[in-house]
Write a structure and sequence with these properties.
- Two copies of one chain form a homodimer.
- Chain A is built from eleven helices and no strands.
- Chain A has helices at 2-30, 37-43, 48-51, 58-87, 92-109, 111-118, 132-135, 137-153, 165-175, 181-202, 213-227.
- In chain A, helix 1 (2-30) crosses helix 2 (37-43) and helix 5 packs across helix 11 (213-227).
- Chain A starts with a helix and ends in a 7-residue tail after the last helix.
- The first copy, chain A, is mostly helical.
- The longest helix of chain A is centred in the first third of the chain and has 30 residues, at 58-87.
- Chains A and B meet through helix 9, helix 10 and helix 11 of A and helix 9, helix 10 and helix 11 of B.
- The first copy, chain A, binds a DNA duplex through helix 1, helix 2 and helix 3.
Chain lengths: 234, 234
Amino acid sequence: MSTVRGARARARIEITAAIKDEARRQLAAEGAAKLSLRAVARELGMVSSALYRYFPSRDELLTALIIDAYDAVGAAAEKAHAAAGRAAPGDRLAQWTAVCRAVRAWAVAHPHEYALIYGSPVPGYSAPQDTVGPAARVGLLLVGTARAAWEDEGVALPPLPDGLAPEAARLAADLAPDLPPALAAALVSAWAQLFGLVSFEVFGQFDRIVEDRDAFFAAAAERLGREVGLRPRP
Amino acid sequence: MSTVRGARARARIEITAAIKDEARRQLAAEGAAKLSLRAVARELGMVSSALYRYFPSRDELLTALIIDAYDAVGAAAEKAHAAAGRAAPGDRLAQWTAVCRAVRAWAVAHPHEYALIYGSPVPGYSAPQDTVGPAARVGLLLVGTARAAWEDEGVALPPLPDGLAPEAARLAADLAPDLPPALAAALVSAWAQLFGLVSFEVFGQFDRIVEDRDAFFAAAAERLGREVGLRPRP
DNA sequence: GTCTATAACGAGATAGAC
DNA sequence: GTCTATCTCGTTATAGAC
């Protein structure tokens, strides 16, 4: 009884994975806008209507791919975060740059999945609430490292520009009530800028401009870390 | 004779503009991947083969749209650059932030054209050399402002991290041989981060996170300016 | 209950004959 | 330039296999 259910469940998991794999292949070849349930089904030797047992609509398949992508980059970042924490406990700047490098490495290795989550929105598709949690994973790591440094020794940040004080207070209340508003605002800014660097590289804006991308990115990531108050180990 | 030719030329210009306008409308509705010469023709009451007199292929139409977009954001930035130069000559930080704000304002007003040039690459399309010049316009303004500040009074930048020295020298040689390598590298980094901030806003990554986008962006742009050595007027 | 297959819909793209 | 025959798409209804 339970083996039967187990076998069915296993088959379901396998087929679901096969569908997503094939969809990712199409993502790379044609882009998210042209992702087609029929083409996926054809490639898998299924009939299109059969896919509806696994994904109730094309948009739900897209959502699954988006969540997987956020989870993949999040997992890569978390792994780097943990490893850096073990390798040099207390060296928050090293941990910060390790997370940045992991994000970049994942993005360079999976450019089409990266484009799906950090590139132009897919026309006609609007991401449901389910993506919010996975999307936050990298950001949470960055906040965590900055918080650890703040708890260690406090951080020295330049004073907030006048106009930003209310928004910074709002950000802090939403994202990290224990942190000073200036740090919360700096974190959001660094977060956006990290992905700006990665996007420029992945989307080809650095072609014929930046050559030694590793060195360039490493320096930029470290600078971002300093902007949220991280300092090299004394 | 010449009036006939003039009229013909005028008609050609008008039709070319109408084609691009309709194509931009489709860009907004369906995305660049689905831009179709046939649909453009249908909407204009033309037959698709007639379009080939104006654009030899879909890719050439895309290229024209891309160049137009780079030129539009470049012109907006140049206008802000010039106005800031007139309003407060010598205040380089104000000029820098004015350019940043102009880029952002254009992007927010034209999100689909922004996505075309700074979003995910269009699958199967590779930009020809013609786009390089227009694409450089904003970057050149940023370099120009930083150069002016450098010539005014020099700039104090943190020393380059070890590994970055060769790449920074290369960047400086390519982009601005008169500037110190550390400044060239900081400029490329600030350039990428500026568009990272804009992309996060335009692509919806700030939804439900950053509320007062004007204040947030203004503060970030000013910080970027300081990173390339700009200081407020004494 | 769970799945797949057939067939169909309405809409749109596409290729080629004329 | 036009028309038509043939594709694609997402999605649903239905019937039957396991």
